[in-house]
Design a protein that fits this description.
five-stranded mixed sheet; disordered N terminus; alpha+beta; 8 helices
């Protein structure tokens, strides 16, 4: 008799929230700590305002160049990560993130992401702390190491594309997510042909396909975890 394969995601541990953690890369090497601090705080403040309906504990700067917060779902957390990463890259600030599922066992702190405990938080912090890994997009999913590895492989691909951008490619690819190509070309005072050339060189289509794959899996994980 052939054994039936276990359904994908069957072993996922139940969760109550998604945690977003991140830190800046090589922040100690900056020429101006004051300027970096100002831009970093502005980015976190913007992200909290932009994603407020889907945040249950706001992004909070914890140790100078590190931050964390809780979202209602992995999909919500992933969208926050993408937007904040784009904001920081446009400000020429490198950063890395971990998105994890947590089962909070203490009350939610709705004003600052401090003084909360539960499975998933420590593991997410540990995953973020691996300085040898150049991946800007990391994941922590209790009970599903294979799915976690696949998500991180996609994240590594996204990081590789971003690391290969010129300043102009970065400007165009990140702006195209929220703006029509013709409007962006007019804003940047370039011909549509030039913009599309930059778009191709920046691997825009592959970049968007990889983000779409992450979003689809995040939505499926949320259903398996009972997150909304």
């Amino acid at each position: 008799m052939i054994a039936q394969a276990e359904p994908l995601l069957e072993l996922l541990a139940p969760a109550t929230h998604a945690v977003v953690m991140g830190d800046l890369v090589s922040s100690e090497d900056t020429d101006s700590v004051e300027a970096l601090h100002s831009r970093f705080n502005a980015a976190v403040q913007w992200a909290n305002g932009e994603h407020q309906p889907r945040i249950v504990s706001p992004l909070t700067i914890t140790l100078g160049d590190e931050f964390q917060g809780l979202c209602v779902s992995l999909q919500a957390g992933l969208r926050l990560v993408r937007d904040l990463r784009a904001w920081l890259l446009m400000a020429d600030i490198d950063c890395r993130f971990v998105l994890g599922s947590v089962r909070l066992q203490t009350p939610v702190n709705p004003t600052q992401a401090w003084n909360m405990m539960g499975p998933g938080l420590a593991a997410s912090r540990q995953r973020l702390g691996d300085k040898r890994d150049g991946n800007a997009y990391r994941f922590e999913l209790r009970g599903e190491p294979e799915v976690q590895a696949l998500l991180e492989a996609v994240g590594s691909g996204l990081t590789a594309i971003e690391d290969g951008w010129t300043a102009r490619q970065r400007q165009v690819v990140l702006a195209l997510r929220g703006m029509a190509a013709a409007d962006l070309a007019e804003q940047l005072r370039m011909s549509p042909q030039t913009l599309y050339k930059i778009r191709r060189a920046g691997r825009y289509d592959l970049y968007e396909r990889q983000w779409a794959a992450l979003e689809a899996m995040a939505a499926r994980l949320d259903r398996a975890l009972g997150l909304t």
